[in-house]
Amino acid sequence: MTQTTEKQMLAKAETLIEALPYFQRYAGRSFVVKYGGHAMGNPDAARDFAEDIVLLKAVGINPVVVHGGGPQIGAMLKKLGVESEFVGGLRVTDQQTASVAEMVLSGAINKELVSWINRAGGTAIGLSGKDGKMVRAEKVKRTVKDPDSQIEQAVDLGFVGEPKEVDTTVLNTLSAAGMIPIIAPIATDGHGQTYNINADTMAGAIAAALGAARLFLLTDVAGVLDKEGTLLTDLRPHDIARLEDQGVITGGMIPKLQTCVQAVEAGCEAAVVLDGRVPHAMLLEFFTSRGAGTLVSKG
Fold first, then answer.
1. Quick one: DSSP state of residue 39?
2. Scanning 34, 142, 198, 222, which has its CA 20 to 30 A from the CA of 216?
3. Which one, of 163, 218, 286, lies nearest residue 33 by Cα?
């Protein structure tokens, strides 16, 4: 063995030793991962993600994956010539759009992700919130501010829902059997009406119901940055409210952090906003002392 090879082997051993306390602490616990953004549609990133999920399962952690697919839905709507209506920047989901969303999410995307994880050595099974009555949805209620009067007005977004109840029976059964659930954010209201649900929101509700050790939201940004562009690695709910008031947290990061806060206040141990563009970012965040994203906890 050369000196270089010996150093490489020693570095790998040290990495495993560093990860050992985390393996021991979280064996048997659940991690809920929202998969989306850069990783979707990029074969190298998808392969890395699948390997990470299989590794988590191999060391005794129970990963549950919830995936998005907004760009893919948009592309299919365009291909089919279906025009989308937007109100206050929010897409209105009519019956035709809802059918296309379910086809893309529960069909193409879900089964592609199942395939990636199976090829990496795992045993994945594709589901939606409909299966096993896992998620019961209710119609989402939103308001937008009229640009002239500045008065908040209710808007009807069609068949867009949010989780009202989560039954973890199917997830617990599959995890105990050595399988990895892959969930499309589609659910019904219990009366036969199907709703499309935001993937972050779906993941947060499932993480809370499972009492998950971690909720990971993979994004296309490094995490939450302060005004100087420095990554904020640890936040509490009161920190988030203050940063939002100061204008540090804006745009699409606001609903992501709201999801994190709701999850940790409802039973999830901690939530992490993480850059999915970084190879193996989830493992770097969890199994090393360095971390790689913004962790939200109650403290």
1. G
2. 142
3. 218
